From TrEMBL, chains A, B, C:
SUPFAM superfamilies: Thioesterase/thiol ester dehydrase-isomerase. The lineage of its organism: Bacteria, Pseudomonadati, Pseudomonadota, Gammaproteobacteria, Oceanospirillales. This is L-erythro-3-methylmalyl-CoA dehydratase. GO terms for molecular function: lyase activity. It comes from Pleionea mediterranea. InterPro entries: HotDog_dom_sf, MC_hydratase, MCH/BMMD, Thiol_ester_hydratase_Rv0216.
Length: 366, 366, 366
C-alpha cells in the first residue's frame, strides 16, 4: 500500500478538468462523437415517466395488453427512450447551445424493455456559420443502440452554438439534406406488434384509424401545470445536464430570470395530453420534425391540440395503419383561443402562447 | 404503401373526439362500465409510493419480512393499489364531478405484487336526483381484478355529478344499501399471511393488539407539508386525470384559486403518519367508510390522529387479530388543538381544519 | 368471530403511543439499538436516485459497464445505500437532535443490488455532556447488513441531543477514538470489481488516476437548485422521518422559518455535480469524515469544488487505484468566489456559503 503520509496540507492550485462543451470551431463534417454514460433503463423509469408526464398510453403501461399485441414484455415509451438517448448527446453537442433549432427524421426502429442498456453516438452532418461571425449551426445525426448493438432510435437535430473566437465568416456552409418526413413503410411497425386482437375496451376509446380524417382538428382539452420539481426531476432522470434547466442562481441573470423547462418535457406532456382523443394512437413510431416555438417555465399550464395531416394502411396488414399528425403545445390560454389558433396556421406559428410543433406518425388499429 | 401526397395543407375543421365525462342522465341502474387502461404495477411504483407519502409500513417495504410472514414476495401497499384502481374509474365516473361524497365497503381481497396488471369495472348501484334539478348522486360498485381475473380490491363510492340539462327532478331516487362496515371474518386475512414468527424488533414498536383499547386516542404527531409537485406526481402516477388536480390556469378561476389535492393523497399521507403509534398495524385490510371533510392544497401541512373503535380476534388464529379505527386528517393546526378536537366529536366534524375521516380495519400481531 | 357490538361511541381518552425519540439520559455506553423497518431496495430506487440527484456515475447506471467491470448486476449507488441505512437510525438516534455534528469512518464493504434488504443496528460508543447542562453528544457506530447478514456499510457519527431534564453536568465524558481516515487497503475494492477492460469512452472523460495531482483544485461548475419537492421526496424515499425536513407548519416557528434540507441530500447533489471533472471516480468506497457546515433550504443553488488530498495504488493491482479528496458544497455564489475560497482554507470553513465538507476515497482506473 503506498499511502502517502499527508500530515501537511498540500499546496493548492487550480486546474481545469471540467468539460465545458464544444464550440463551433471544434466540430468538423463527418466527425464521430461517442457519448459517455450508457444507461440501463429500469422499471423505475417506467413508473417515473408516468408520474412525471401523466402518460396513459396503453402499450407502455399494461403488460397484459402489450403481450396480447405480440410483445414479450412491456415496451418502454418511445419518448422516454428518446429523452434518455437525447440526454447522452447534450454534453458533447448542446451543453452551452444558444438554441435547439429543430429535429427531423427521428425513427424508433426497435422497441426496448426494462433492463436494456442504451449507448449513443453522433456524427456531424452539417455546419453553417452565421453571418454575425459569433455563432454557427451544427447538424448531427445521432444513433442510440441497445446492448445487442441494435439501433433503437436515430434522429437528426440542429443547434446554434457559439464560436470560441468571433470572427468574420470563413464560408463554412454545409447544410445537409433533411427529409421532410420519415418514409412510411412496414419497417415502422415493430417486430412482433400486431393489433389482430385489439379491443376498444382496453382504452375505452372507440376512435380507430377509420374515424380520423385529414384536416381534422382535435382539442385535447386537458391542462397540465408544470412545477419546478417536475421538470427538474424529468430532466435529471434523462441525465441531461444543460445548466439552463437547473441553475436558478445563474438563470436569475438571464432575460427570463428563471430556469428553462427542457423542451422534451413539453413533448412528453403534449403526448400525454393527446391521450384524450387519440387513446388508440398506441405506438409513436416516428417524429418527422419538431420545433420548440417558445420557452416554457415552471408555473406554465400546457395544453395541446392536433391536426391530422395524413393517414394510410400498410401492405398486407389488415390490423394496423398509420396516422400522421401535428400536435401543437400551448401555454396559459383558453380552449377557445386554441381552437381559433388551430384554424389559422399563420397565427399559430407566431403566437407567443404556442410552445411546440411536433409532426409525428402513430400506429393505430384499423 | 398508399402514402398520400400531402403537399397542400389539408382543409381544417374542428371535431369532438375528446371524451369529456358523463353527466347524470348518462347513468342508469345496473349499467356496467369497463374502464380503460389496465395498469401493470412495477417496483418503480413501490419506490415512488414511499417517496411520495413517506410510508414506512413494514410489509410493503421489507421483502425479507414479507416472506417471514408467509408472502412469496413483497406485496404492494393496499392504498397504492386502491389509488391506481380508483384512477381507472375517474374518466367514466368523476371526471367532472362536483364532489366525491364518500366511500364504503372497500375490501382488499387478495394481495398483489410487482408485475401484476390491474383492470377495473364499475356497476351503477344507485341514482338520486338532487332537488335543485341541476345535479344528482351516482353510486357505483367498482371491482379491480388482476391478470388472473382474481378480485384484488372492490369498493363502493358516491359522487355528485352535473345534469346535462337542468330540469325539475323526475323522481329518480334509488339509494342503495351501504353496509356500515366490512364484515369481519377470516376472509380479511390474505392467503399465506401469518404472524407466527413476528418480532417487534422488525418495527421497533412494542405495541401489539393487546395494548390498544377501545376509545383510545393516539395523536401521531408527525406533520407532512404538501408540495405542488408531490401531489401532482402522485395523482399522475395513479393516472387519475381529473383536471382540478393539475390545471392551475383553469383553477385560478375557481373559488380557492388553486389546484385541489387528490383526496387519496391525503389518505396515504395520514396512513403514513400513523406509522408513529401504529407501526404494527401491518395490513390495511378494509376501509369501512371515508369522507374528505375539507379540501387540501399545496402548502398545507397534514397531521393525523386516530381513535380505536373496536378490536378482536379471528377463530383459530392465535397469531393475528384486527383493529378497527378512525383516523382523522388535519391541516395547519397544533398538536393541542388536535387533541381537543379528538376529544369532542361534534367539534371535530365541523372543523375547517379536519380534512379526512377514514374508518378502516387493520390486521395486527396478537 | 368475537366482533364487539359497537353501537355506542366509545368513551374517549388520550394515550401516548407515539415514540418521540430518546434523550441524552436514555443512552448508555455499549448500548445496542436494533433499528426498525428493514428496507428492500428496488430498481425504482435506482431511477428515483438519478431523478432526485442528477447522478451520472457510470457503475450505478449502466449494467453493461458494471458487468464489464466484474459485477454480476448493476450495483446500487453507495450514497443511496448510505441514506437508506442512515434513515433507519434516525428514529432512535436523531429524531429530535439539536444538530448532526459529524461523520467518520464510513466504509462500504460490500456492494448491494436491487432486491437486497437492508437492516441496521447501532452501538453507543461515546457520550459527552455539554457544560450548559442542557445537551450532550452521543457517538454511535452503525452497521447495515444485507439479507445474508453481510455488512454492507458501517459508519460512526455524533449528534447533539437534548437532556430530558437539564441539570449540572454529572461528569459523563467518554469520547471515543475516531480514526482520521478509513485505512487504505485492498478490502476497499469490492469483490469482483476490476478495471482491466476500462475504456474512457464509457465516461467520455480522459482523466484517470495518473492525471490527478495532490493539491489540485477542481471547480465542478454545475449548479443544482433545490426544490421543496426534490428534497422532500428524497428524504421520504430514505424513510428518514426527522420532522425538520417535512413540517412547514412547525418550521415556520423556527429561526429560519422554513424546512431544513436533509444534509445527505446535499452530499448526493455534490457527488453528482463532481461527475463533471471526476467522471472516472467510479466507486465511492469510503467517507473519511464529513460535516454540514451550514444549513440548506429549498431555493438554494448548490455548487461543488474538490481538492485532491492524496492518491495511490494497491499491491498487485495494475487496473485500479485510489484518490482521496475533499469536496466542498457551496450555495448561491459565483464560480470565482468558489475558486477564491478553495484557495484559502481558513476562509472556506467560516464561509456562510459553504454547506458541506466531505472527505472521501474514490476508486479509479489507473
Amino acid at each position: 500500500m503506498n499511502q502517502t503520509t499527508n500530515s501537511k496540507l498540500p499546496k493548492r492550485f487550480l486546474t481545469e478538468k471540467t468539460f465545458q462543451g464544444y464550440f463551433f470551431e471544434d466540430f468538423e463534417i463527418n466527425q464521430q462523437l461517442i457519448h459517455g454514460t450508457p444507461r440501463t433503463i429500469t422499471s423505475g423509469d417506467i413508473s417515473l415517466y408516468i408520474a412525471l408526464t401523466g402518460s396513459q398510453h396503453l402499450l407502455n403501461c399494461a403488460e397484459t395488453v402489450a403481450q396480447a399485441c405480440g410483445f414479450k414484455r412491456l415496451p418502454i415509451d418511445n419518448l422516454l427512450l428518446f429523452h434518455i438517448a437525447f440526454g447522452k448527446t447534450v454534453p458533447d453537442i448542446s451543453l452551452n447551445a444558444v438554441a435547439n433549432l429543430g429535429y427531423a427524421n427521428c425513427r424508433f426502429s426497435s422497441p426496448i424493455f426494462a433492463g436494456d442498456t442504451i449507448s449513443v453516438t453522433s456524427k456531424v452532418i452539417g455546419l453553417k456559420e452565421n453571418s454575425n461571425g459569433k455563432t454557427g449551426i451544427v447538424y448531427v445525426h445521432s444513433i442510440a443502440k441497445n446492448q445487442h448493438d441494435t439501433t433503437v432510435v436515430e434522429w437528426k437535430r440542429w443547434v446554434m452554438v457559439h464560436k470560441k473566437t468571433p470572427s468574420a465568416p470563413m464560408g463554412i456552409d454545409h447544410i445537409p439534406d433533411l427529409e421532410s418526413s420519415v418514409t412510411i413503410n412496414q419497417n415502422l411497425i415493430p417486430d412482433d406488434l400486431n393489433f389482430d386482437n385489439f379491443s376498444s375496451d382496453w382504452t375505452a376509446c372507440k376512435h380507430r384509424l377509420t374515424h380520423y380524417q385529414v384536416g381534422e382538428i382535435i382539442n385535447h382539452r386537458q391542462g397540465m401545470t408544470i412545477n419546478d420539481s417536475d421538470h427538474s426531476l424529468a430532466t435529471r432522470l434523462y441525465q441531461n445536464n444543460a445548466r439552463v434547466h437547473f441553475d436558478q442562481h445563474m438563470m436569475s441573470q438571464s432575460a427570463a430570470g428563471k430556469r428553462l423547462v427542457y423542451g422534451g418535457h413539453i413533448m412528453s406532456l403534449c403526448r400525454a395530453i393527446t391521450h384524450s382523443g387519440l387513446a388508440n394512437g398506441l405506438w409513436l413510431t416516428a417524429i418527422n420534425g419538431g420545433a420548440h416555438l417558445n420557452p416554457s417555465f415552471a408555473g406554465d399550464t400546457v395544453y395541446a391540440a392536433s391536426i391530422i395531416l395524413d393517414k394510410g394502411h400498410f401492405d398486407n396488414r389488415e390490423d394496423i395503419g398509420w396516422l400522421r399528425l401535428k400536435t401543437y403545445g400551448f401555454k396559459n390560454i383558453d380552449e377557445e383561443t386554441i381552437n381559433e389558433l388551430m384554424m389559422e396556421p399563420e397565427q399559430l406559428r407566431i403566437s407567443k402562447q404556442c410552445v411546440l410543433e411536433l409532426d409525428y406518425t402513430l400506429l393505430m388499429p384499423n
